[in-house]
Inverse folding.
């Protein structure tokens, strides 16, 4: 295992974006994609509990370059002028990041990692920008299905048929509602707009048609998602296409609070990148050259 | 604004240098010290805002990540409070070198205030030392963080409909080894020699007995007690006391500017 070589840059068309380029200590292979990591909600680029730093260093040790950066107006990056929508600004920022990595490292293909609101620009670019070869969407878009609604009803039924459990549940809810908020439990202060489900399905099929690799992970906090096979049901298919992997982690919270859960995500992402975008080993290249 | 790495190759620190922006240059600097890693994310934006207010007053500003936190090298299990105090000294020197100045003040929040005061009561010479909602001692700080963690886990239990399983050596989502917990618990500001500072200021949003006691216990280089300044939180939210309040940021920036002019 090699360690990461990290450098900080300002870049972008308005020179206002700040990012840390993490590269393998020995050599960056321009033939494999670089991974782009950016803000989760209003957190700055290091990510919740330093998640993006852990991912970047793990990937660098495995031989992959990454850029973790702040979208304009967040973290250390300067806001862009102009009245574009938040999602358009996010897309422009990610495209600036791709241009920067290409100029700096010669890498022209990319894997986007989006968590929660970070999925919004990532999803749109995965449809429209052919440089995006892979994407990991964590707690991204999800939609109610008959299976989802059935599980919600069963859960409610279990509570009603078990009075002690119901009162315990009610007390917890009331207790949580009655408490004043602390640092750790401030709710999200922004809202997200999901694309309509038919548009989402069309988008995913377009990604698959151009052979984009997709990793979807949903945690126990994902809105409208409550069983392992739900992604297939949303798409209306029985088997996932070979380009797509889907995990459901109901024991994990939205920002991966437990150290073991972050390690699980780092390992899962790292393994997926290595499997879907294998490095061409230096020795192999040398053999080809000779 | 200049983001950069500084320090020794294997233990590099990430920092952001902000030059004066308001037209004037006081030829003085301010180093901003983040709180402990558990509170770092929620305070990042307030620090960026405070840096902006200070540069408008003509200060050179450096905010930086301690070793094992943010974008700096290393991981928390390898870090110690002694190293974080050394990081504050490094950052002060880096700001002097970067800006070509000699006079530097420090602003530290919560555990950052505790660490800054420890550095200033040993060998760090500063102009003003500003302790913003300081952690007075390590034991009560960890106790408070554990209380916050219990509430967070209760909240997540409701959301996930099951308990969130965390490891035995974690605190608010970050590793906390028994050794690090013990080292933090040993920190105490209440019985320290005078600070090597012209002025010591304590900023809080409420009248607190422990801050009143601290203000008499902690002395500046002339033996004068610390000034305790109460700036009520305009957000009226317990959740974000001091962390998102703009009034306290403005009050600290203008207190530093008044002294420097």
């Amino acid at each position: 295992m090699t360690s990461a070589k990290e450098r900080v840059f300002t870049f972008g068309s308005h020179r206002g974006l700040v990012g840390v380029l993490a590269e393998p200590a020995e050599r960056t292979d321009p033939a494999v994609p670089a991974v782009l990591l950016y803000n989760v909600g209003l957190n700055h680029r290091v990510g919740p509990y330093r998640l993006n730093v852990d991912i970047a260093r793990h990937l660098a040790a495995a031989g992959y370059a990454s850029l973790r950066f702040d979208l304009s107006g967040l973290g250390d990056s300067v806001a862009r002028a102009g009245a574009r929508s938040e999602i358009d600004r996010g897309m422009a920022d990610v495209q600036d990041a791709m241009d920067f990595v290409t100029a700096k490292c010669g890498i022209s293909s990319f894997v986007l990692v989006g968590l929660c609101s970070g999925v919004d620009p990532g999803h749109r670019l995965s449809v429209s920008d052919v440089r995006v070869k892979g994407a990991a969407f964590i707690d991204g878009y999800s939609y109610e299905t008959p299976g989802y609604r059935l599980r919600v009803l069963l859960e409610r039924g279990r509570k009603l048929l078990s009075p002690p459990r119901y009162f315990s549940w009610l007390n917890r809810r009331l207790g949580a509602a009655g408490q004043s908020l602390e640092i750790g439990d401030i709710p999200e202060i922004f809202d997200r707009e999901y694309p309509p489900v038919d548009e989402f399905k069309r988008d995913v099929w377009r990604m698959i048609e151009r052979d984009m690799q997709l990793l979807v992970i949903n945690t126990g906090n994902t809105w409208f998602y409550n069983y392992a096979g739900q992604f297939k049901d949303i798409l209306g298919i029985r088997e996932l296409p070979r380009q797509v992997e889907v995990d459901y982690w109901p024991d994990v919270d939205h920002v991966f609070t437990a150290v073991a859960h972050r390690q699980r995500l780092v390992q899962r992402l790292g393994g997926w990148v290595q499997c879907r975008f294998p490095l061409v080993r230096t020795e192999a290249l040398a053999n080809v050259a000779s | 604004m200049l983001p950069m790495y500084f320090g020794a190759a294997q233990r590099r620190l990430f920092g952001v240098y902000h030059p004066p922006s308001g037209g004037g240059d006081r030829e003085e600097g301010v180093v901003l010290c983040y709180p402990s890693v558990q509170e770092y994310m929620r305070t990042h934006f307030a620090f960026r805002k405070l840096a902006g207010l200070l540069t408008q007053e003509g200060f050179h500003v450096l905010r930086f990540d301690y070793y094992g936190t943010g974008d700096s090298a290393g991981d928390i299990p390898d870090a110690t409070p002694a190293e974080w105090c050394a990081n504050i000294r490094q950052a002060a020197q880096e700001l002097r070198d970067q800006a070509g100045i000699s006079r530097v003040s420090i602003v530290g929040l919560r555990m950052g205030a505790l660490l800054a005061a420890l550095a200033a009561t040993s060998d760090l010479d500063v102009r003003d030392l500003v302790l913003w909602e300081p952690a007075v001692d390590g034991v009560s700080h960890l106790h408070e963080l554990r209380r916050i963690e219990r509430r967070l886990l209760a909240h997540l239990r409701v959301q996930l409909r099951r308990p969130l399983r965390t490891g035995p050596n974690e605190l608010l989502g970050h590793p906390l080894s028994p050794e690090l917990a013990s080292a933090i618990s040993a920190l105490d500001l209440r019985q320290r020699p005078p600070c090597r500072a012209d002025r010591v200021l304590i900023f809080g949003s409420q009248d607190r007995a422990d801050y009143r006691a601290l203000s008499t216990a902690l002395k500046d280089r002339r033996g004068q007690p610390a000034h305790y300044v109460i700036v009520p939180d305009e957000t009226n939210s317990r959740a974000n006391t001091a962390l998102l309040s703009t009034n306290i940021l403005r009050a600290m920036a203008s207190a530093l500017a008044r002294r420097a002019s």
